[in-house]
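Table S2 (continued). Query chain:
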Amino acid sequence: MTTYLKRLASQTLGAFLASLLAVALAARPFDVLTFDWAAALTVSGSAAVLVLLKGLAARFSGDPETPDLNR
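Corresponding output:
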């Protein structure tokens, strides 16, 4: 169970950070003060929730120690 939770947390955090970075890089030019943080965090949070739900669904199909659907 702990291996599963560590992998799930890692994937969820990775998806959140990757989508936040992608949204930030899409803003040209990037300025911390004028950047729309609310929209960026909403997009990143949505991506993280989808990865979390996928990981929870994977728990009940396939290998119970990995949050991947294809294993």
